[in-house]
Amino acid sequence: MSRSMTGYGRSEGSVGTNRLGVEVRSVNHKFCEITIRLPKPLLSQEARVKKRLLQRFTRGRLDVQVTLNGAGEATKRLEVDLGLAKQYRRVLKELKATLKVKGDPDLALFTNFRDIITVTEQPRGSKRLAQAFHRLLHQAMGRLDRMRRREGNALARDISRRLQRITRSIGEIKHRVPGVVADYQQRLRNRIGQLTHGMSLDASRLEQEVALHASRCDVSEELTRLESHLSQFAAMMHPPKAESEAVGRSLDFLIQEMHRETNSIGAKALEALIAQKVIILKEEIEKIREQIQNIE
Fold it and tell me: Are residues 257 and 220 in contact, defined by beta-carbon separation less than 8 angstroms?
């Protein structure tokens, strides 16, 4: 079953003295765009989070918001960038020689360069925190997915009803097309009879005119293609489980083709009843087009 791109999932739990909450939201988007907001202790998990989202969702603007309350104590650690310190020492010695300054660079001087000695914080139990986070993320993603599926089912039901109306209108047009040519033939004969006041007619010329008109208003090819698009559209709305569920772009292409064929039918049809059915087709196709903008 096709999925909507709109949904929301949330999960929360406790990890020691910490309270962790994970929210995943999604809305319409042509591609898959991901925004991730993580608290500082979980920043290292961003790449893994993005990978998991991309494995499960293919379209939509996804927003992941993670909150961490009561983070507790963290261990602090000093880190020294020895390579950078050596560069500072070399530059200072060159500066000393150039300026002809006596003495050597004092060790205390290096403490002023904050990029040499840095303080890092590592929350206690960080491994357990990361494991709990990914467990909650899995739950939130599952709830988001279920909501997207429910919304997709609702969209599919509405679209199916509209496809049925389109199918009925196509059937009525197909039933009416042969009569359009016959009616035109009779109107043409009557009109020519009025203009010629009963004079004999060139039957072959009359048949040529009728044949020419029949070719101009023949919509059988457009109807055949439109029915084919409808069949493909219905199949994509309910793809086999083994196939990808990301059908939104394919559906959008088909609906454009359906609209194009309907315009061609409208341009060729000179009969009022067919013109009315074409209006119905356009209305239903446009409503379907709006709906599928939300399908993954």
Answer: no
